[in-house]
């Protein structure tokens, strides 16, 4: 196996070098952006292409063969796979990276355009695809069955170019697993798809311990065909792998051997010395918003192990988004290039470099202990305000019915936001569509309806979930409450999972914000997901059925005995019946005995 | 089997069987009462154990301490400086500190009116979002600015802030942690929990702008004591006698008592030698609190929403400092954080008699059920009795009557059966009894409404008037009835039958909800089983009247208020507050279950039946 691997690697490398000389089909880039409240956003992006003809001829270069074969087998035109954990704190971190296009809700999310003639065939191919991906990524994707699959109508648009696609032969299927816990076993296969694995280049920073300790992380795989404008070349199949993570700098800087946040020694605490009671044993902490100094090896636990030799040399591998006023130290072999906007800089790494280190010191102009929130913002790039804030939670209590409330806030003072709100709910949440209601906080919404279009596909018990897509708008600088009620159904007792009392996860709602295009149509510009929910259903006490069975069995046995006795007995008056006396008893005993004796004794033939 | 059935049928006709119920009822009451006193014995109670394996209490090292104490001292200075300031000022300062820690902070206003008073305030809460989690589950840490006794929570609030700063450093939280500071211990938490579950009246209580997931547990810190402490007092009584999951109490017990090596006390038993008297006292105190159904701390409001919660109160003079208290909370939170499922494994119905001994519902429930059953038995007996022709008191006459009955009735049984005397059936006149019992039940809404809606200044005079009226009322009603209706003995029997039937029904269903309340009311109402008109013995009538007035709801209220040295007005104000703010239903039980039964019993006692007018009817 190893021989085979090394052989394939060798051939791979030789091929890659051949390609490099022609046109670089692979590049990778890491963008680091310090965020407020001592957080750091690290966006890893790996992109490689293969021409469609090479792909169809099973001629894989940068495109991972394992994934490519699955896609071919399942007839997949475009694929999007997301593994996410944690939540994006939009209030402090601002707009999402990639405008939210490279993230999913908590757990695993998969959507793909499949080429199939009929819906049944598409379902069949979807089954093949989920099962194959499940094996490839060590995730429970095979649990995306009919009840978790929907066919969104408005929310998703293909990202790639599908020149010869028609509505009838491409099918969009969308599946989500909110309860799937993303962990290292999903990272390893993810890294294996990269040409340099995790051995060289920026991918060498990726380590499960740090990635899954992040406050928010999202791993994405996007496969899409990209065609150049008419007549300028061949269509290519592009695979883009993205990892975004928000590290808590303070937490990441803790050494791996000693991750416990023990209290610092008293003299190392950052105190607010202006307090009148400040003394050796009394300290009002002033450390929470500081801590903007870090280095790559501190936050990732290691340095970049050179650059991946296959990558496009024109794309700088590391970029850092801090104002130009801050100084950055880099190790030998790196070259800093500042961008014109004054807010970011990129670093070239020479091919021979084996360890690349980057260090962002504390802002010089301010004394470390006296950082105020206002001044601190100037040391980092101010986060962009997102187009929309969304927060979803359950209302009501009890196990019979409940409600969902989504608070949608448009922070823009003058621009209206139009978006599509999509929910794919499990079948056991039966929503009352007539209760769906959107209201503006404070004022009545009589002039213009907020909800413009609703697409609703009701659930079928145990077969498919509810699909709800709502096209709606939020006027400028206002908050809209979108609410609806639902009823909780009672499951069969074998349908409960082993941890039934935990509740059932409800997938995140997908919000796709639309913006007008030049030609008058509207297309998605920004995506966001709400958090997932935990819905508690009426749960039986699972020892109860057995108690009930035992109890009823006993009761029935007792009752049946008596009943049966009465039913089969013939009632006669006491004087009509045979006389019960010692003589008759004796007679009863004697007659059978005689018969037996008669048999034992050989009688005359 | 058929022999058994026919035997039972024969037994049914035996007149001796009708003599039995009073003794049976008495036996039920006695057994029920004695049963209760057996519970603290070693053989009848069980040792507590952790049922939910995921909790793993006391299995983690706690690291809270060291320089966190410096921070604690600083926060304590801040809190001390805020003492006596207004609610809004306090919240502004605390919100600034919490925001500085990187928490999401929000506030909520609430206003309650009860007994003419307006209770208003502003809750402050901060959410520590689980670093890697999703907003699906949350645990709550509560510190009321003023504890249930009205003292400033001098150490509790700084401890909450210090813990918030400490918890923020950990990345292991699987659930969000909500830090809640309320101005008082009852109304504030109630407003917050109601709003969290959208069960609030939005005219009085604001909705929460910031929310997290399903609440899995809550711990309240009530640490008003200044100096070092010795033990932790776990307060666990919820509203209407609901209790938190026993696993939570056991976990705290395990962490504080086992891991931290401090004492643990329950039900204000500051010293407990684990002998019978102390166990009994703990149990009875617990039952009394459960029976009253009052909120006992900030945790109480959480329990009706199936969020298990306890309040931790340090007490005594020892060597444990604030950090030790913080470590107890840390350990408990680590345990709650381990929970994969909502607490459901262990008991929700239990009586604790020592920190490691309890009895579960299966063991104690028969006690209240037997007391409740005595009323039902008597009611059924009276129903049967009232349907039979009245027989003379003498036994010889009894036999005669039986013989007469045999001759005069055409019985459906065959002549061969040797059933002794199918007695005469009598038509029951149920209009007056039904009307009377219904009227009593409706009359009960008068005191219920009065005491829950009168302003506080009127409560004591109103109560005095009502208590006096209450003493006279049975005499009044009795004379009215005898004057206008001239009820027979049978009608008195039926009044008692219906009244006891209702009482038995209410109490036995209440026993499954609030065992202690049912038992208390059952025992106090037990003399009603034996009330009957005493037409020929005025001495008995007077004795019974005195007894009934001594166990009247009003008299019991006055007596208990005197015993605990609080004014009756204060008790009533507290009850009205409980009714208005958190929906305590004890007043309903007292006025709508107990009081009508008492009234009916008193009227029966004073009854003067005329001799039977019952028509003889063949069966």
Automatic annotation (TrEMBL), chain A:
InterPro entries referenced in this protein's UniProt entry, alphabetically: PIG-T
Signal peptide as annotated in the record: 1-23
Keywords: Membrane, Signal, Transmembrane, Transmembrane helix
Keyword Transmembrane annotated: yes
One GO process term, biological-process aspect: attachment of GPI anchor to protein
Pfam (any one): Gpi16
GO cellular component, one term: GPI-anchor transamidase complex
Annotated transmembrane regions: 544-568
Signal among keywords: yes
Protein name (database record): GPI transamidase component PIG-T
Source organism: Podospora appendiculata
UniProtKB/TrEMBL annotation, chain B:
Signal sequence annotation: none
Ranges of biased composition (kind: Low complexity): 409-418
Biased composition (Basic and acidic residues): 390-405
GO cellular component: GPI-anchor transamidase complex
GO biological process, one term: attachment of GPI anchor to protein
Transmembrane helix as UniProt keyword: yes
InterPro entries named in the record: Gaa1
Record PANTHER family: GLYCOSYLPHOSPHATIDYLINOSITOL ANCHOR ATTACHMENT 1 PROTEIN
Record protein name field: Gaa1-like protein
Organism (species): Podospora appendiculata
């Amino acid at each position: 196996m190893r021989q085979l691997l090394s052989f394939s690697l060798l051939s791979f490398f030789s091929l890659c070098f051949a390609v490099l000389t022609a046109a670089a089909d692979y590049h990778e880039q890491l963008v680091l952006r310090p965020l407020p409240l001592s957080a750091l956003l690290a966006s890893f992006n790996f992109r490689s292409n293969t021409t469609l003809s090479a792909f169809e001829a099973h001629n894989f270069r940068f495109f991972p063969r394992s994934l490519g074969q699955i896609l071919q087998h399942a007839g997949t035109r475009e694929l999007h796979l997301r593994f996410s954990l944690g939540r994006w704190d939009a209030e402090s971190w601002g707009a999402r990276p990639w405008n939210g296009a490279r993230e999913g809700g908590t757990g695993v999310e998969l959507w793909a355009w499949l080429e199939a003639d009929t819906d049944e065939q598409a379902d069949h191919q979807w089954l093949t695809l989920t099962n194959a991906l499940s094996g490839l990524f060590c995730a429970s994707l095979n649990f995306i069955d009919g009840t978790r699959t929907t066919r969104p109508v408005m929310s998703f648009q293909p990202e790639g170019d599908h020149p010869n696609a028609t509505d009838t032969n491409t099918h969009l299927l969308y599946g989500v697993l909110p309860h799937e816990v993303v962990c290292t076993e999903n990272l390893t296969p993810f890294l294996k798809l990269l040409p340099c694995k995790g051995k060289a280049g920026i991918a060498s920073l990726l380590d499960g311990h740090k990635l899954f300790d992040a406050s928010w992380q999202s791993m994405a795989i996007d496969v899409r065909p990209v065609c150049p404008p008419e007549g300028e070349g061949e269509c290519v199949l592009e695979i883009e792998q993205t990892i975004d993570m928000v590290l808590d700098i303070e937490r990441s800087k803790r050494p791996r051997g000693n991750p416990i946040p023990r209290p610092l020694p008293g003299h190392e605490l950052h105190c607010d010395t202006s307090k009148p009671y400040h003394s050796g044993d009394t300290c009002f902490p002033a450390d929470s918003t500081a801590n903007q100094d870090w280095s790559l090896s501190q936050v990732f636990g290691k340095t970049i192990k050179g650059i991946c030799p296959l990558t496009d040399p024109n794309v700088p591998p590391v970029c850092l988004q801090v104002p130009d006023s801050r100084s950055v130290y880099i190790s030998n072999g790196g070259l800093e290039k500042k961008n014109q906007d004054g807010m970011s800089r990129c670093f070239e790494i020479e091919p021979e470099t084996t360890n690349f280190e980057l260090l962002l010191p504390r802002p010089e102009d301010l004394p470390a202990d006296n950082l105020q929130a206002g001044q601190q913002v100037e040391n980092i790039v101010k986060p962009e305000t997102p187009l929309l804030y969304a927060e979803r939670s359950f209302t009501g209590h009890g196990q019979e019915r409940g409600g969902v409330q989504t608070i949608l806030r448009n922070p823009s003072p003058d621009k209206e936001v139009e978006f599509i709100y999509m929910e794919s709910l499990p079948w056991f949440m039966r929503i009352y569509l007539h209760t769906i209601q959107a209201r503006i906080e404070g004022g009545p919404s009589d002039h213009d309806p907020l909800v413009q279009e609703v697409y609703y596909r009701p659930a079928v018990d145990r077969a498919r979930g509810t699909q709800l897509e709502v096209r709606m708008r939020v006027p400028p600088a206002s908050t809209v409450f979108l609410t609806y009620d639902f009823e909780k159904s009672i499951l069969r007792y074998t349908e409960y999972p082993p941890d039934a009392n935990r509740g059932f996860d409800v997938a995140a709602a997908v919000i796709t914000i639309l913006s007008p295009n030049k030609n008058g149509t509207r297309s998605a510009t920004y995506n966001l997901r709400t958090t997932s929910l935990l819905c508690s259903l009426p749960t039986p006490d699972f020892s109860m059925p057995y108690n009930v069975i035992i109890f009823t069995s006993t009761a029935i046995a007792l009752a049946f005995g008596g009943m049966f006795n009465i039913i089969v007995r013939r009632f006669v008056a006491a004087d009509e019946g045979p006389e019960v006396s010692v003589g008759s008893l004796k007679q009863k005993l004697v007659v059978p005995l005689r018969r037996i004796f008669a048999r034992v004794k050989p009688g005359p033939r | 089997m058929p022999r058994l059935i026919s035997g039972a049928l024969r037994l049914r006709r035996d007149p001796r069987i009708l003599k039995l119920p009073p003794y049976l009822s008495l036996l039920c009451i006695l057994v029920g009462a004695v049963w209760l006193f057996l519970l603290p014995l070693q053989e009848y109670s069980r040792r507590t154990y952790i049922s939910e394996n995921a909790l793993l209490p006391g299995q983690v090292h706690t690291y809270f301490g060291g320089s966190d104490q410096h921070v604690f001292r600083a926060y304590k200075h801040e809190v001390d400086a805020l003492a006596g300031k207004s609610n809004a000022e306090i919240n502004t300062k605390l919100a600034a500190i919490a925001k500085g820690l990187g928490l999401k902070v929000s506030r909520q206003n609430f206003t309650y009116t009860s007994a003419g008073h307006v209770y208003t305030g502003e809750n402050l809460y901060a959410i520590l979002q689980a670093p890697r989690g999703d907003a699906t589950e949350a645990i709550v840490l509560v510190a009321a600015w003023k504890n249930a006794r009205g003292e400033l929570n001098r150490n509790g609030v700084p401890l909450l802030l210090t813990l918030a700063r400490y918890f923020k450093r950990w990345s292991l939280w699987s659930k969000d942690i909500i830090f809640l500071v309320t101005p008082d211990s009852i109304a504030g938490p109630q407003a917050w929990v109601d709003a969290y579950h959208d069960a609030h009246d939005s005219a009085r209580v604001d909705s929460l702008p910031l929310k997290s997931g399903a609440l899995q547990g809550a711990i309240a810190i009530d640490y008003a004591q200044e100096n070092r402490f010795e033990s932790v007092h776990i307060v666990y009584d919820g509203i209407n006698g609901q209790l938190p999951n026993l696993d939570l109490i056991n976990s705290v017990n395990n962490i504080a008592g086992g891991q931290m090596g401090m004492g643990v006390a329950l039900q204000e038993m500051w010293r407990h030698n684990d002998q019978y008297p102390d166990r009994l006292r703990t149990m009875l105190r617990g039952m009394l609190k459960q029976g009253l159904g009052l909120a006992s701390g900030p945790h109480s409001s959480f329990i009706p929403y199936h969020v298990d919660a306890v309040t931790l109160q340090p007490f005594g003079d020892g060597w444990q400092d604030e950090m030790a208290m913080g470590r107890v909370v840390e350990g408990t939170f680590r345990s709650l954080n381990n929970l994969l499922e909502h607490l459901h494994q262990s008991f929700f119905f239990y009586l604790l008699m020592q920190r490691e001994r309890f009895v579960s519902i299966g063991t104690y429930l028969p006690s209240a059920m037997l007391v409740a059953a005595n009323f039902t038995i008597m009611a059924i007996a009276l129903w049967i009795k009232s349907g039979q022709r009245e027989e003379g008191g003498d036994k010889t006459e009894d036999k005669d009557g039986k013989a007469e009955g045999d001759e005069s009735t055409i019985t459906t049984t065959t002549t061969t059966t040797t059933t002794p005397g199918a007695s005469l059936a009598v038509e029951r006149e149920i209009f007056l009894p039904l009307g009377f019992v219904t009227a009593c039940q409706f009359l009960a809404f008068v005191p219920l409404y009065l005491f829950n809606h009168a302003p506080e200044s009127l409560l004591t005079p109103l109560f005095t008037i009502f208590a006096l009226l209450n003493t006279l009322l049975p005499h009044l009603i009795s004379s009215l009835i005898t004057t206008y209706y001239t009820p027979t003995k049978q009608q008195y029997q039926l009044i008692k039958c219906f009244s006891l039937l209702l009482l038995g029904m209410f109490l036995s269903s209440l026993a499954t909800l609030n065992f202690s309340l049912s038992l208390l009311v059952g025992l106090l109402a037990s003399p009603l089983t034996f009330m009957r008109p005493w037409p020929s013995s005025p001495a008995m009538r007077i004795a019974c009247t005195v007894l009934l007035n001594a166990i009247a709801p009003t008299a019991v209220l006055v007596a208990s208020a005197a015993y605990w040295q609080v004014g009756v007005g204060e008790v009533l104000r507290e009850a009205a507050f409980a009714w208005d703010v958190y929906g305590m239903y004890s007043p309903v039980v007292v006025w709508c279950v107990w009081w009508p039964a008492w009234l009916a019993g008193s009227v029966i006692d004073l009854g003067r039946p005329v001799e039977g007018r019952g028509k003889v009817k063949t069966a």
